[in-house]
Fold each of these.
Amino acid sequence: MDIKVIPPTTSLPVNRAYIVTMTIKSFKGRRDVEVHLFRPIWNVEEEDAYPWDKLLGDPIENGPEPDINRSKKILLEAFTQDERDQLIDYLARRYASRLKNISSAPLDFPIPLGLMPLSEMPEDENFGRIRLEQIPNYPLPFPVHGFYDLNSARPIIQGELN
């Protein structure tokens, strides 16, 4: 399993600024399924504490004004460096044989308005959510969900080995 942590190239404006993804070798009949990990909940005090005028940028598209609360969620779903390190350590210890890689990078600031947060992505037969905190013996002090898209992964061919 490969672990890649990309450090920030400049000073980050806030400590909650890291995204984490993992690639599962085989999952639901697919190979190399990329899962985007995120925090599904946060407290209102944290949300109110950020200098949003410095963290959010211009809309990604021209047209009606995007929902600023959705854009805020992009940051609120991210991890602090300490949370990122705890999460990577947990995944590497518990799922080393099942994961192809784990990667992390800082968010780009300012965050463009109009992006869809992972917590609002729809679920169906191809798009889904893994709720890590529901797995027995989950040790982290914060919940973590992962969003995946089975359409973006290759099917496992009958008889193919991992």
Amino acid sequence: MKKILTILLLATLTLGAGAQVPDGCELPTLPELSAKERRDMKETLDAWLKDWQKIGASGFNPALKYNDINDKRISIDLTYIVADSTKAFLDSNSEYLRAASLFDATNRLRDLFEMVANLGYDVMASVVLRTITGRSTSVHITNFDNATLRYIMSLKSSFSVYVYSDVVEVLKKIPFGFEDSVICTGISYCNHLWTMTLHSSIAFDPEDDSYIVWAVHTSEIVSDADFMRFVGMDSTTARFIIVQDGAKDTFTFDYTPAQLLGEEPALDINWLGNYLAQGIDRTFPMPMQSSTGTMEHCSYDPTLQVLVIECLMDEIDVVGNVGREEQVKLPILEAMLAASEGNDFIQALAEVGLGLEYRIQSRTTRRPLTITFTPDELRVFILERQ
């Protein structure tokens, strides 16, 4: 039976290269110990380890056992008894298993491992996974250098461990295709800030507002990616940095834990409305298409969530359309759709959930005429013409 188990273990043995510390992350510093302080700490550690060796494995799931120590590293074993599905998940997510097992060990025996870390030792961890039925066993061996040991000990929760392990896994693949024409070139996770850097080979067009495009795009990533929920559970902010060919500056977008958890919208519609209104207002005054009117100002109404275009028109045009607001909506949209810029504008508003309102006055009497397109009306209009 022992021979069969040994063959099984060797067949499933995984030698890990070890976890690592994301670039730029600050580590808890090693204390400057005098020769006496170091000697005293080592004597205390050896005494604790001697007691631990007498006692045997500590705790359950994992059962934590001390093997040996030399002048470079300490060796430990962790044995987990898990369900078949849990074992399959852990076997296929080795970075998470390594980080989580060391997190378990160092939190259970915090004082002991603080001495290990302060003395500059590495940790050799052998993690054994066994199913409840005992039919399947696997072993994962990892050497954690001292920097990684200190980094994992600085993590505060299981969510932190999950986010960290994912970053370590992604770092192995960089650079890689994130989506069409976009490559992930960097990722880090430090001090409750998760950062991903993306490079777009789509040539920058000064006629387009790339800031809005990337704001919408990254907000969709945040809304659709389940992993972002774990980042939020760690009370961490997610940051996307976009580098686009031809653009002088990078685009940076931050998302709060509340946005990552879905407690607040990923795309701040009021911020977007104000941003668009300010940009449009800088182009005014401008003649109205197919009309004698002039578009004078643009602002944002947060109550209605519409962009407000203030216009001046001839008296006869205003009088002729008062009471016909609903009838003139379709012709206005059709005229905008016929122009490429107007088409893109309506598409963008519908996509982000903003509406449009024309607040018109006659030039002579200031008679008012208001025509409002709600976000839902714009969406329906676009859908019907696809």
